[in-house]
Amino acid sequence: MTRMLPLLPLLLALIGLAGGATAFETRAKAAYVLDVTTGTVLMHKNADTPLPPASMSKLMTLFVAFEAIRDGRLSLEEKLPVSKHAMNYGGSTMFLDTTDRVRVEDLIKGIIVLSGNDACAVIAEALSPNGTEAGFASYMTQRAQQLGMTNSTFANSNGWPAANHKMSMRDLALLARLLITEFPEFYPLFSETEFKFDGRAPQNTRNRNPLLKLGIGADGLKTGHTQAAGYGLVGSALQGDRRVIFVISGLDSAQARAQEAEAIVNWAFRQFTQKELVKTGTEVARADVWMGDAENVGLTAAKDVSTLIPVLSGKGIKAEVIYTGPLSAPVQKGDTVGEMVFSPEGLPQTRVPLIAMESVAKGGFLPRLKTVSGLLLTRLQQGPEGAF
Fold this sequence. Notes:
Radius of gyration: 27 Å
Helix content: 25-40%
CATH superfamily of the largest domain: DD-peptidase/beta-lactamase superfamily
Strand content: 25-35%
């Protein structure tokens, strides 16, 4: 039968120290905020709704390009031709033309810093299975699905308005996390504030990310804007050992985007703190053992448990130890025998496997006789309905 155990006093002292944080009321039409360090979702609003991502979808083009560089199918020094299709893109561009052959490194910086629609198309045609941007977009969709971005479909490489070009806020956050963790050698490019390509576009040399110069740890990733999408931003900030990724979309101006992004970063870092709840090797509870040479066994977390908690005092964190028991002997040290569930107020649960701290062998004749005798006595005292 499933049992819930009381926690040991030491653990209770650690968890009974925080309460609910005030929810952030975002002006964005859709939003998602993730504490990367603990995996805690701090906020979500229409997070799984596929929406026009505008230039934020350029992150997927960059991801595919980084994969190609890592696999040796593309090199930073390689020079790529510019097609008439790529040259004809409007909006934010690098002002490329068909006489150019452009280094891949410059194209990547042109996408990240300048949000170059033409640069995306050049990369797309170079990596496309059939040499077209449409073929690359189909591959992007396929690759996104493989990576778990199930609410993403692409019609082009740069976010140019199209009916079937959409991403969800959660998918964009997942993509940002992959870029940070999978390609640390390229991630510093996202914090570059200026790129002057060949002196062609003095009016388009600066990164549009409004957080990069504020001194709040912001180091990426990509802005976006179209009439249909509104103003959006996929951002990330690192303060100390904590990293936060956030995605906002649907704001009505660049100023509103800047204000909302800064407010979210400040809220995420100021209203929550990371707390180590228990280290592996610390006994958190004891579980009964059936027919063993010991009556119970100590339980500990399979890994160190760290979670985010609101900084304001309040009701504390609900914590439970759950296992199916009594455990049947033999029990081996390190066996997973249950789980510990932490429920911070207003935040998702943290579930951690529990393992046995020592081995418990099958009991000999006398311990087993004692167990059976105790069970029979209990049943006799409880009557026929007391059996389990």
